[in-house]
Amino acid sequence: MFxxxxxxxxxxxxxxxxxxxLEKIKDSVTDRSExxxxxxxxxxxxxxxxxxxxxxxxxxxxxxxxxxxxxxFLARRTEECMxxxxxxxxxxxxxxxxxxxxxDMVNLSCSMEHYRFYPDLLSxxxxxxxxxxxxxxxxxxxLGEIQDLDEVGYRFRKxxxxxxxxKGYMLLTNEPAEPFYDGxxxxxxxxxxxxxxxxxxxxxxxxxxxxxxASDVNLNFWKEQLGNLNDFRDFYISHGIDGLKERLPCGSxxxxxxxxxxxxxxxxxxxxxxxxxxxxxxxxxxxxxxEAIRIMERLxxxxxxxxxxxxxxxxxxxxxxxxxxxIHPISFPKDMESIRxxxxxxxxxxxxxxxxxxxxxxxxxxxxxxxxxxEEIREALDREWPTEESDRGLAIYLHNRLLGRKVFSxxxxxxxxxxKLWGVLEVKTYGRxxxxxxxxxxxxxxxxxxxxxxxxxxxxxxxxxxxxxxxxFWNPYHFQLQTEQELKESQEQEAGIQMGGQ
Length: 502
Hints:
The chain has helices at about 20-30, 65-80, 85-95, 100-110, 125-135, 135-145, 150-160, 190-195, 215-225, 255-265, 270-285, 290-295, 375-380, 400-405, 435-450, 455, 485-500, and strands spanning about 1-10, 10-20, 40-45, 60, 115-120, 165, 170, 195-205, 205-210, 235-240, 300-305, 315-320, 320-325, 335-345, 345-350, 365, 405-415, 420-430, 460-465, 465-470, 480-485.
């Protein structure tokens, strides 16, 4: 994708295909009448859409290791890591942005998500038609009263920039593109593939993928955007190495996960090590990133075998085989702890008429009105569990496998408290959960209330003497999850304040 010409004052230019090395360039110089380092590099692109092959991209660059490394990065990035569509967008981005330096070219190749692409908009007429259809009111404020679609597209492009490609229209977003390279350490050209973890952050109503481990310059950018990264947890893990997302300590921060990702990428260089590490994480169930890193530091102590005949008595079964530690036996708390999580209930009620037919006029019942039907609702909940789930309930559906090791059982029920019927999740755990694990448990239960168990339960009627109830554990507007202690202590305090004020 890139050719360079090395120029000297007293001899013809030498052409090299990128990638190459500084040593190869120096070895090719036979005339030593001038210092080799005095040569200058002119850079030409080849095969990048919208970039003219006979036009020098950068002229007079110094012949040095840094310039050659930057060019080698761009060659790998464009030739090995981009699809034909991505390469076309990159060429269009170079044409629009006209990056000043090779470092800018590097950063542009790593931040293509900051260019919005609109397929099939191939002309100003197409652009105008799309804008008038989707943003008519906004356009009147921005561009005035215009009916001609060509004129709409022309004025928009003149104001906001962008360019037409062979497959659509590309526009640079107003958001600053995060830097990946500051002239010191080049990123991995294949970082989208080799990054162990990818976080997704929603900022200004737009999602941003952050590939971990992030470079120092990238981290500094996100510190400016998000604040203290060691405290930042408002993200979700979108993807990464298969099996890792489900085996990360609950409640880990951005900064902690970046530290862990750096260790993982540096030390796990083959599939066998990855399987051993994932098995050790699952068996030991670390409560924090610090504990997970300690496991990695003594990974050579672990043994993983597929057959039970080859294992020790204290081996733990994982999806990858039986795992044990030769020096520090894997231990787990045996004492059970109990947790009860409370959340509001509501229901839709349908009456029966004199012929026992269900009315089509629903009534909305709140937790006070449901209080008299605690037993019927509890019995309906008890019927939810088939034999294979009878011991552990919803615990078998936990997404985080480390939490699944700590949590023995999860069963929904109901309970009256302070003249209201509450939804209750009764949980039994091996030992006490960490704050991060408790937050993870509450997130999992909230997901079950909204999309999993709760969604299914509210579609099955609970028969009562007056008709049928459809009980909901989820309310998108008034859902609040509290431990039993938090709920009852807060309500007792409120009652005490009210009594004291009388």
